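Entry 14. Ran structure prediction on the chain below.
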Amino acid sequence: MPLFKVYQQSQPEKERSNTTCDNSNSTFEMIFSRLLEALIFTSAIAITAYTYITGTLFNQKASSLIVEGPRASSPPPMIQKNAYDDDDMKRRRIQAWAEEQKLITPQTTKKRHSSCTLLNETKVQLPHMKRDKKRTQSLSCLATKEQQEEILSRMEERLQSLIQQGQEALLSPMSTNSLEVEIIQKDRLGQIILNRPNKLNALNLSMVQMMTPQIKAWEKSEMIDVILLKHSGGKGFCAGGDVKMVVDLAKAKDPNAAEFFRKEYQLDHLIATLNTPFIAIMNGITMGGGVGLSVHAPFRVATENTLFAMPETAIGFLPEVGGSFFLSRLDGQLGVYLGLTGKRLKGADVLYAGIATHYISSSRLLDLEQCLSRLKSPTYDTINQVLDQFSADLSHTPFSLAGSSSRSIDRCFRHHTIAEIIEAIEKEEACEWTKETLTLLSSMSPTSLKVTLEQIRRGKSMSLTQCFQMEYQLVQKFLAGHDFREGVYSTLVTRSKPNWQPSQLSEISESKIIQDYFESPSPLDLVFLNKRDFKSYPHHQYMLPSEKDILNIRLSRQQVMDHFVNEYRGKQGVKQKVLDVLDRYMVYE
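Output, structure tokens:
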């Protein structure tokens, strides 16, 4: 199939143009031939590398794209796509290089093209000519010498790029729109894009297995300086693990139920211990498994669309994915409160709580990506400065749990049993917070509440690796139990009130919980992909200051505030956080 459609010319015109066109046509044919060879070579290497690294073949839809080639409306491989583009934008980007010279008027055909087709058939006209077929000629004949040289130069550059991409494919899996995880390299920025919007990007085993080898490859590659994780669009960054799938596997006694958690925890631990800077863009619903992918990274960006929660106790489960580590290290008793109640935090609250490191408006994310992709061998400090520059002004955005709510949380959730916590809440002054909190706790699985409290208390003195290992032991017991299956089916399938067993807190003692869940061994152990470990986050300086940091400064109120504003270089949210902590503890002391 010709790359450019050449319309029939009148005989005199042919005779006049043959001499001038022969050399140009041969040059164009040579370039196009090399482009096609490079494209086929690149595709073959990418498919081979992907199959070798992951051991997983493309699904049927992806395979059909490779065998049959893309439809005429699909972007040619030589045009780099943008994950945020809609279909119309992608088609416009395909035509952009030709339309810059105002030489080409693309006309999309309805035929299915083979995998060797690089461009749709096009009709090329000079601007000063009448638009009739008799006077229409080929691009190579009518373009000026300068224009031909420019187009040839672009094609040569693209040819070299295709060859380089073929070589790089040995280190990175191939990306297609049909995959649930897309992999894109933009300059020295590696992007992982969650692409399962109809399920709010809920994690399944295949998604985890695609991300892990890619991150490992980028960690070893000298071509990637920063890794960025985001989602392709929609409301959900990642709404958690696909718990319905996991419960069905567990019900069938399929070992892949436990295997999912093993692979997931290995991925979460890998992200937490990377040497390559990792940025998670939590621009949407971020719960459960989505928290595991982001909260342990050195940089976590919240936006006005972020909705955070660890709601596992509501489905008869526990806040895992390292929840025992990060929840136990939040200010005061905030982590215990969030883990037990599943309380949702929105927008800037995710930053104030210590879960995100930065708060950036979603409208600036594309500009942020462009800036990050242009950085040359950036340090962690350099990346932090860039994120600070893009951060939104929070001067008039307080923490929704500041003041009396924070004081109540610390007073009530410092106790060592769920019964004592509930009793303390009931003694608090009646308000919206006490009513909401009691309602939340009363609907949760009693077993989940007691396991979660013990889990977070133990996690405070454990390393990250130890926390993941403890959680993997606990998860295996929940997979074999009643409440997890009951909670998932009641919440997601029957939409009914779950029938917890036992149904009352008084029916199960703390000693029984410790014996059955924490002292009794589980059959499977968890081994990580590297031996790195820590007891406090190594990049905590990029977060807001903690309560402990603030209270250790023995100065006047104004001096304390000035100290931290200067120390964190005017970072958005620092002033509000410091004032909240000082006000709260002035009441105590």
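The two ends are 82 Å apart (CA to CA). Will compare against last week's run tomorrow.
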